[in-house]
Fold each of these.
Amino acid sequence: QVQLVESGGGLVQPGGSLRLSCAASGRIFSSSAMAWYRQPPGKQRELVAIINRGGSTNYADFVKGRFTISRDNAKNTVYLQMNSLKPEDTAVYYCNAFPVVPGGFWGQGTQVTVSS
């Protein structure tokens, strides 16, 4: 059974930090690179960061230098440390495999709101 459970979102002021967590089912986690995606209000879902099974990472330009993706293979968990948050980072954040299987399962996401 596929499971993706995101947590850690909330309301934060500009310049603040949050750490998101994603507990993934073993089948997805062990066989795939993992990624964080986000969907800003009224916009399409977009890729934020990728981490492969060996720990190599890639980031979208709009989060480089501010966000850090990591994974704990023993816990089947992926993290996203978000620093220097901006209002434009407001979105629902999701984790999933990379690349995503077309028509594949998505978790409920976690809402991040950056506002003063």
Amino acid sequence: QVQLLESGGGLVQPGGSLRLSCAASGFTFSNYAMSWYRQAPGKERELVARISSTGYFTTYADSVKGRFTISRDNTKNTVYLQMNSLKPEDTAVYYCTTVERGRPGVWGQGTQVTVSS
């Protein structure tokens, strides 16, 4: 059974940091690129970051460049999103996904990130 399980969300003050994790199971993790998306209330889902299957290549949304870092550990079947200098506009539910033919495939259940003082 293919499964993605996000964790690490929570409430943080502006300027703070969080590290999201996404544990994968049921498929050969190292064969897939992975992505993080987010969805804020009343807004469409937005691609935040993507990482190649080997971890050598990464891309970011302009809104998070220089603040967020995507990484992966293929020995642990886990992808991470390190989020620094968080802003209120980063508040959203964050999802990890597999990348299949350039599009999101399997989705996790999401983890809530709230940036507020």
Amino acid sequence: QVQLVESGGGLVQAGGSLRLSCAASGSIFSINSMGWYRQAPGKQRDLVATITTGNSTNYADSVKGRFTISRDNAKNTVYLQMNSLKPEDTDVYYCNCNVGFRWGSRNYWGQGTQVTVSS
């Protein structure tokens, strides 16, 4: 069983910063790609940023230059540093990890953390 526990969401004024963390625990053989997605009520879940095992990153155009994704492999943790936050960044943020096992791999999702940016 694998669990992803997110933390770091909250309420911040526009222009402020937040740092999200997502720690994976359980019977993990390896963690492949890790990422952050966000979703507003009634809308689809959209990619925010991803990072590979080789630390190659990919960002949504809307967050480039403001958000930074990173990972600590020793801690099985992925981070999202969010700067210059805008009201339109308000969403529930979910982390995603592709976890490797001896028999293959599987995607897991965190429980979601609310980020609210006030104008």
